[in-house]
Design a protein that fits this description.
By secondary structure, the chain is of the alpha/beta class. It has one domain: Dihydrofolate Reductase, subunit A. 28% of the residues lie in helices and 29% in strands. It contains six helices and ten strands. The strands form two sheets. The protein has an eight-stranded mixed sheet. Strands 2-8 form a two-stranded antiparallel sheet. Helix 1 runs parallel beside helix 4. The protein is globular, with a radius of gyration of 16 Å. 24% of the residues are buried.
């Protein structure tokens, strides 16, 4: 069965975006971007909401709009990943994407059992919030940035009960960003 992950940059106080959706403080340096490029081939399917889908469309035309080997390598990898977009307003998507044909739980169940390799990655706080509340996330991969925002869009939604996690990996980058990879503890 394939693993479902939620991986985002997050402030020290738990926000993925500041007021008004500001994410300017999350821009990766060269070392962190290289780490993302190394990790991205491990994604078998990307789940995303409309907003993130539209933000990531920039990578569809990277060959003509960007320069730099690392950017073009990421674009090549990203474009090849199958994407499932959850939206009530989009009528069509482009590239290697399709609109979700079922509810979140149904899509995740089908993807978990589908043949293939790579993790199922969830992008965006809104969609991740739905999966977290339904206990459908297996791993949380946080890139903790040493900044305190005070308010904004939280990484985790309000929960009815705690989620027990086991730390699998940590890494500190030169930019002081700390990567934390945690697996949800399964209780029998």
């Amino acid at each position: 069965m394939r693993t479902v992950i939620y991986s985002m940059s997050v402030s020290l106080d738990g926000f993925i975006a500041g007021l008004g959706g500001d994410i300017s403080w999350t821009a990766p340096d060269q070392e962190l971007f290289a780490f993302h490029v190394q990790q991205t081939p491990g994604i078998g399917t990307e789940l995303m909401g409309r907003r993130l889908y539209e933000e990531m469309l920039v990578w569809e035309t990277a060959e003509t709009t960007m320069s730099g080997a690392d950017l073009l390598e990421f674009a090549r990898i990203w474009k090849a990943i199958p994407k499932v977009v959850f939206s009530t307003t989009l009528e069509q998507v482009q590239g290697n994407a399709r609109l979700a044909s079922d509810d979140v739980a149904g899509e995740v169940a089908r993807l978990r059992e589908a043949p293939g390799e790579g993790v199922i990655s969830v992008g965006g706080a809104g969609l991740a919030s739905t999966l977290i509340k339904r206990d459908l996330i297996d791993e949380y991969r946080l890139f903790v940035i040493p900044v305190v925002l005070g308010r904004g869009t939280p990484y985790f939604p309000p929960l009815e009960r705690a989620i027990e996690l086991e730390l699998l990996e940590t890494r500190t980058f030169g930019s002081r960003v700390v990567y934390l990879r945690n697996r949800r503890v399964q209780r029998g």
